[in-house]
């Protein structure tokens, strides 16, 4: 980010020079082309969880039916693209790689690009943010893949999505610190050895231990993402569904611990299964022309069987039920 050939500071702000701006545009276009089925329905999924909790795997398995219509925005994907481009144009050696690493390599040690991913962290975050902002302007369905450890940043994301008219689902994926640490080491080792064996590739990305440990330093023994995700889901009126998955140890099944929906804008989050059961009972009664207790504000009000206008706020719309994963 400090390379003057790529960036210039004006009035305390970092601006991208024309050549680097063209690369950013190219990388964003590549990302869009990798997601050809994306739709513009103003829907967002926010992924939260500690490093190596399995957020991407959970998303692919639990939301496989809708995922092709979403643009996944992950700064880590941009890190890989930036490093790949740097290797291609020579700036990995001339600009990114520190002299200390070069000295170690001269002594026989071997490093791979993803081990230096922290050096392009700011730029990858800039790319992810600019792509997200453009997606919001276009109404594109998006997945925001993040640790979500900062309440302030989470609240900012929530406000931006609300202003843009988005319905939001928050998915929190949790593992204990020991499992996160084990997976970080295992992934790095596997990718590093694979790159050594092939003599090419980006290698493995290492997550600093101090960062991983801090992520688990949340209130009441929770991880920071767990607390922040729950706070965002409860406070943001446009969050229509909140789920939390937890895996206690490697090889153990992933457990759906929390699954709540907000069937009315600004209303409370309620248990999804209970709501499904209630909706089924209400639908059954409605088809028999009976009143629906608990929904009508006054006695004797009925759900019309055909034609007519449904009394306001009695039953959530079909589109909102679909967003909540209830139909």
From TrEMBL:
This is UDP-N-acetylglucosamine kinase. InterPro entries: P-loop_NTPase, Zeta_toxin_domain. Residues 116-218 form the Zeta toxin domain. Its EC number is 2.7.1.176. GO terms for molecular function: ATP binding; kinase activity. SUPFAM superfamilies: P-loop containing nucleoside triphosphate hydrolases. The keyword Repeat does not apply. Keywords: ATP-binding, Nucleotide-binding. Residues 285-320 are annotated as: Disordered. The keyword Nucleotide-binding applies. It is an enzyme of class 2 (transferase).
């Amino acid at each position: 980010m400090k390379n003057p050939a790529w960036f210039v500071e004006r009035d305390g702000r970092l601006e991208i020079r024309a050549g680097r701006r063209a690369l950013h545009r190219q990388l964003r276009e590549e990302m869009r082309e990798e997601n050809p089925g994306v739709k513009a329905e103003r829907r967002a999924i926010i992924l939260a969880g500690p490093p190596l909790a399995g957020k991407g795997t959970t998303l692919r398995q639990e939301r496989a039916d809708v995922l092709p219509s979403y643009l996944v925005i992950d700064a880590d994907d941009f890190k890989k693209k930036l490093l790949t481009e740097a290797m291609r144009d020579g700036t990995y050696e001339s600009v990114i790689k520190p002299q200390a690493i070069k000295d170690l390599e001269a002594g026989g040690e071997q490093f791979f690009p993803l081990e230096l991913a922290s050096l392009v962290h700011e730029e990858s975050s800039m790319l992810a943010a600019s792509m997200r902002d453009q997606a919001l302007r276009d109404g594109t369905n998006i997945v925001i893949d993040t640790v979500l450890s900062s309440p302030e940043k989470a609240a900012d994301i929530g406000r931006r999505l609300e202003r843009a008219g988005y319905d939001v689902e928050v998915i929190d994926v949790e593992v204990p610190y020991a499992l996160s640490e084990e997976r970080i080491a295992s992934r790095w080792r596997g990718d590093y050895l694979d790159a050594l064996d092939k003599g090419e590739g980006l290698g493995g990305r290492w997550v600093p231990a101090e960062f991983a440990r801090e992520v688990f330093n949340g209130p009441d023994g929770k991880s920071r993402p767990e607390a922040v995700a729950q706070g965002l889901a409860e406070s943001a009126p446009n969050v229509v569904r909140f789920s939390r998955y937890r895996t206690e140890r490697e090889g153990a099944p992933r457990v759906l611990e929390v699954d709540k929906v907000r069937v009315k804008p600004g209303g409370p989050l309620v248990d999804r299964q209970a709501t499904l059961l209630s909706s089924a009972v209400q639908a059954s009664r409605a088809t028999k022309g009976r009143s629906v207790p608990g929904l009508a504000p006054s006695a004797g009000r009925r759900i019309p069987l055909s034609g007519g206008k449904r009394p306001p706020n009695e039953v959530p719309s079909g589109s909102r039920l679909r967003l909540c994963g209830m139909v």
